[in-house]
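Handout, section 3.2

Students often ask what a structure token actually looks like in practice. Rather than define it abstractly, here is a full record for Meiotic nuclear division protein 1 homolog. The first block is the sequence as you would receive it.
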Amino acid sequence: LAAMSVKEVLQSLVDDGMVDCERIGTSNYYWAFPSKALHARKRKLEVLESQLSEGNQKHANLQKSIEKAKVGRHETEERTMLVKELSSLQDQREQLKAEVEKYRECDPQVVEEIRQANQVAKEAANRWTDNIFAIKSWAKRKFGLEENKIDKNFGIPEDFDYID
């Protein structure tokens, strides 16, 4: 049980990079040099210092950008009035957009599209009406049925005709 604990602790140290392991023949050899940990900490310190200097540089650049942006943007009565006016105009624009959307179906282009779609639907309906009349004619010739019986059996209304 104790040997198992030592093996687990040793494997944990190897996984954390604090101890090195090498298999030589049938044996595993473990070692740790004090200088390795020192070098690892130095590398980590260098990385953190470079990140800190980059962060400080970004901060300085952003401060400069803020200062540039503030030029000519002092809070004055005129600026406050203009901001309020801009806000009200944006609200008015949104209301007008909503109103235009309400009357969209009155748009000549939309009306023309609807008219064309209606024309296509009308032509399709008349084409199918043509097909139904052709089938009725064929059924009358082939089976000698009366037209009103065909209409009744297939649920064709009496006023069935082409669309004008």
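Discussion prompt for tutorial groups: The chain has four domains: 1-32, 35-73, 76-104, 109-154. How would you have guessed this from the sequence alone?
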